Recover the amino acids of this structure.
């Protein structure tokens, strides 16, 4: 199988940061897997907000990562690096990658791959790793969410937000979301959110108080930060956890530390991409054990918005930036 591999491939790169139009096809050598890596012939690549921020020049790839955008792929294993076992050429996988997904071939750490079970379409497989790893780690590992708790998720119809609704439902959480329009709120409710608050029409702090009978939520998954942080803290119950995964509303926040102390809050957050290979491998293992059975039996499927051919990556970014999408946008690189 590896004998048939081409020497060159098409990828989508950019010479200078800028708008979607800077994304252009480039011809590159097909990368060779090093120890512990596999080479994947890419079927689909997920598009994530961090790709947009990278393209704008505000989220540089960590040292050693490919400068080509793309943090998740599905495809077929075509070559194994030294020391890889458990995977074989021809196997369908999806993978969390630290870059390089917008390409015909992509390297992945073997222990950052998950098998694509029968019945899971490849476009959906590509849409899982980034949001699943991010939500699992931040909601359950950092935020200690447990069965019976209530969580507030901003960006309820984002790739991350839709995954938080689905996982929350499957793991016994009551999920309240905020969204930017009545239409998005309706979609979030269809997906299983217990309540959806149109934050442009309603004060979410007052609404959370009303919905929880003044108790508050146990956890806030926040992708806004800025002046949301103080408001989020007003939504938290005693011993509440506040988990920051993005700062779309500004990095600085002014909060009352006496409230953090007296109400015993925990403030935390994380970014996935720069974490160590070992961390990601452990997270992949945890997800394989805890979540993948739900993917295999069809109980968990990502919410899909749109697919664009690889050479229209710029249009995929335009769709994401327009903000009308619900769920995941993917690039179709090849069929199969
Ligand atoms: N920390 C990590 O490891 C990690 C990993 C992946 C993604 N992320 C971050 O998570 C976020 C979601 O990623 P994604 O790929 O799912 O992107 P996405 O689908 O484009 O979602 C972005 C969401 O942010 C919401 N939003 C933006 N500004 C807002 C504001 N001022 N108030 C309330 N909501 C606001 C939008 O909600 P409305 O349209 O309803 O306004 C939208 O649903 C991004 O910020 C991304 O950078 C973090």
């Amino acid at each position: 199988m590896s004998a048939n591999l081409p020497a060159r491939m098409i990828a989508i790169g950019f010479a200078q940061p800028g708008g979607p139009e800077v994304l252009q096809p480039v011809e590159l050598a097909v990368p060779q897997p090093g120890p512990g890596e596999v080479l994947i012939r890419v079927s689909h690549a997920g598009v994530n907000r961090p790709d947009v921020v990278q393209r704008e020049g505000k989220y540089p790839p960590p040292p050693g990562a490919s400068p080509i955008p793309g943090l998740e792929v599905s495809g077929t294993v075509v070559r194994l690096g030294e020391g890889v076992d458990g995977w074989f050429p021809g196997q369908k996988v999806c993978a969390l990658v630290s870059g390089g997904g917008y390409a015909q071939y992509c390297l992945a750490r073997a222990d950052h791959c998950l098998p694509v079970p029968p019945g899971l379409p490849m476009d959906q497989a590509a849409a899982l790793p980034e949001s699943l790893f991010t939500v699992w780690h931040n909601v359950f590992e950092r935020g200690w969410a447990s069965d019976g708790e209530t969580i507030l998720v901003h960006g309820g119809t984002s790739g991350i937000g839709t995954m938080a609704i689905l996982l929350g439902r499957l793991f016994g959480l009551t999920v309240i979301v905020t969204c930017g329009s009545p239409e998005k709120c309706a979609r979030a409710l269809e997906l299983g959110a217990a309540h959806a608050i149109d934050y442009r029409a309603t004060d979410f702090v007052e609404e959370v108080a009303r919905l929880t009978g003044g108790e508050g939520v146990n956890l806030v998954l926040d992708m806004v930060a800025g002046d949301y942080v103080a408001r989020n803290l007003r939504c938290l119950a005693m011993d509440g956890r506040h988990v920051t995964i993005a700062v779309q509303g500004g990095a600085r926040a002014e909060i009352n530390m006496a409230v953090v102390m007296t109400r015993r809050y925990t403030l935390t957050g994380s970014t996935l991409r720069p974490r160590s290979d070992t961390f990601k491998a452990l997270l992949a293992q945890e997800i394989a054990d805890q979540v993948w059975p739900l993917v295999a039996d069809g109980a968990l499927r990502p919410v899909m918005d749109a697919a664009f051919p690889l050479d229209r990556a710029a249009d995929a970014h335009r769709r994401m930036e327009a903000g009308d999408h619900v769920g995941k946008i993917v690039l179709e690189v090849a069929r199969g």
Q: What stands out?
A: The chain has two domains: 8-128+273-332, 131-269. Residues 48-50, 130, 134, 154-155, 157-161, 178-180, 184, 199, 223-224, 245-246, 248-249, 270-272, 320, 323 surround NAP (CB under 6 Å). The longest strand covers residues 37-47. The mean pLDDT is 97.
